[in-house]
Design brief:
The complex is a heterodimer. By secondary structure, chain A is α+β, with helices and mostly antiparallel strands. Chain A is elongated and about 95 Å long. Chain A starts with a helix and ends in a 12-residue tail after the last strand. Chain A has a domain of about 170 residues: Sortase (Sortase, Chain: A, Beta Barrel), CATH 2.40.260. Chain B is mainly alpha-helical. Chain B has one domain. The longest helix of chain B is centred in the middle third of the chain and has 27 residues. The mean pLDDT of chain B is about 90. The chains are: A alpha+beta, B mainly alpha. At the A-B interface, α2 and β7 of A face α2 of B.
Amino acid sequence: MAATTDTEHEEQSGTDGPPEPAARRRGRAGRIVARTVSVFGELLITAGLVLGLFVVYSLWWTNVVADRAADKQADRVRDDWAQDRVGADGPGALDTKAGIGFLHVPAMGDGDILVEKGTSMKVLNDGVAGYYTDPVKSALPTSGEEGNFSLAAHRDGHGAKFHNIHKIEKGDPIVFETKDTWYVYKTYAVLPETSKYNVRVLDPIPKESGKEKAGHYITLTTCTPVYTSRYRYVVWGELVRTEKVDGERTPPKELR
Amino acid sequence: MYGWIWRHLPGNAWVKALLSLVLVVAVVYVLFQYVFPWAEPLLPFNDVTVDNQ
């Protein structure tokens, strides 16, 4: 590369001026051009490598970090439950900061997803699902009141807890586990693509899902298509029944 | 640029190679720890919530 630039340059400008000092001058000029081109090329290669590393970071490293954080927080919640430090139903005793329970969606794969308060990046980047506090405040199943339990989680990177949301079909169970109750929801509507400004999907009665009356609903939101966040993917479920958690924490039949 | 760094590293080729490796690791660490976490929210890949902004 450097050699080619050198010769070309000399060939082009080798006719005018006194031969000796000019040749030397042009040789130096050629070298400067060559060096500039080579540094520019190296910068381009570097930029390419950095972008490649960013992909590695987004799709792999953030998952490593998030899963580690999520496991730690989930362990803490389970410990708290086991040692009875958190009364899930007692007023004021619900420690929302540590996580309020676990989401199980067999259609998305095994494993439980810790649910915490808020949908800020800071919360979601720990590899958990967050319930909305803004723009539409989520209802909590533990309150027993009618409303919409609305959740968000990452589709890619940062744990990618809702990566397989497209595998949820109508009729699939979505189970929410708290310290002493299993809340069994059934998927009744899926919206594969909607605007990111469509906050009405979070309404206490999500009309877009076809519901007209108040009830106990659950809404899962994430970004779509995968690897971008151009649109939002929404899944709605309705509470079918609740089950008391027994001594062995036997999961409801949907999870077995 | 890289040639310049190579020429200015001390020692023989092996030492230079080792030092280069250390430099590469340091750069990757800084990128993963500081630069990418800073850049990520500025890029439109990972917004998962619906909002009215």
